[in-house]
Amino acid sequence: MLIAAICSTIIGILNDGAKTGWTEGVTIFLAVFLIVSITAGNNWIKERQFQKLKAKLNEKFVSVIRGGQHQDIDI
């Protein structure tokens, strides 16, 4: 898509001039940048959530009765 943006910018400038020819290429570039940014942000959030769940999975407690009292012990 970035190559398409560059080609579109060059072709637009050659056909329509420097004043308006760059708009389509820059629009493609901005769309790609926006999609990549949103996707990266979502992936980062999901990874953080996964790490929290993984840490919780590693927490293992066992219920025991010692001296007549109920306790939870981390193993």
Give the structure's gist in a few sentences:
By secondary structure, the protein is of the alpha+beta class. It is 68% helix and 16% strand.
Question: What does this protein structure show overall?
Answer:
It is a single chain. By secondary structure, the protein is an alpha+beta fold. The chain has one domain. 68% of the residues lie in helices and 16% in strands. The protein contains 2 helices and 2 strands, in the order ααββ. It has a two-stranded antiparallel sheet with strand order 1-2. A hairpin with a 2-residue loop joins strand 1 (61-66) and strand 2. Helix 1 runs antiparallel to helix 2. The longest helix has 36 residues, at 23-58. The radius of gyration is 28 Å and the shape is rod-shaped. The chain starts with a helix and ends with a strand. The mean pLDDT is 90.
Q: How would you classify the helix and strand content by structural class?
A: alpha+beta
Helix-strand topology string = HHEE
Mean pLDDT: 90
**General form:** rod-shaped
**Radius of gyration using CA atoms only:** 28 Å
Helix content: 55-70%
Task: Output the number of helix runs.
Answer: 2
**Strand portion:** 15-25%
What's the N-to-C terminus distance? 52 Å
- Would you count the extended β strands for me? 2
> What count of domains describes the coordinates?
1
Low-pLDDT stretches are none
Strand numbers in spatial order across the main sheet: 1-2
What characterizes the major β-sheet?
A: 2 strands, antiparallel
